[in-house]
Amino acid sequence: MSEWLVLSIAMASACAVVLIIVVLNNRRLGDDDDPSETPDVIEYMTMMIGVVYAIVLGLAIAGVWEGRSAAQESVRIEAQALHEVKARASVYPAEVRDRIRADVDAYVSHVVNDEWKVMSERNTLTERGTELLNQVRADVTDYEPKTDHEGQAYQPLVDQVAAADDARSSRGQNAGATMPGVVWFGLIIGALVTVGLIFTLQIRRTFRELLLAGLFSALIAFLLFLIWDFDAPFGRGISATADPFIDMFPGITR
Hints:
75% helix, mainly alpha, elongated, single chain
């Protein structure tokens, strides 16, 4: 099911539930009911709980967005490091250079075409990707420089492979959901409490009040969906992409 369809259903359901409760609640009120009798303390508590929940939502959104940005940055660093390996290998003899470049291309092709799908579905890296990166490392470290020029390029090449390996590990760590279950429990309970408190204000069935109640509940549903979508940096609609690999390795196609 599409993430946007899930969002539409969640927002529509939230609106429908709130509006149905409002209508049913107003049917049982007598003609002598006075909405102005709502105690001031309830209005104050409703406002404060709403403010606290807004802060919690903001922190949750900031946290998952930061996680997504870190995941995208790890992809960029990995792609840049492998691009440097491919470029710096030009000082090596043709046989060694071509082998290094071919293995780098094979690794990048696997990441873009195979490993990315596995990350989105299973939240893990592939053993084949690890094997291909180890092959690139072996190509670089096993060669013994013959000239001073090759010797000067050797250590930077080793460092770039290490940087790519480190970025790959970071990409693997960011593949799954980062939001703890207890936080989700708090967010959902907070949403129910916050939306439920609007009924303490004795809203009526006027168009303006129903519209505001529906929009408020839809906004809460949208923000929770946004957190859920960002919580899996590689697995959902607004996710980190493999564009850095594609940009730096134009010959690699998806």
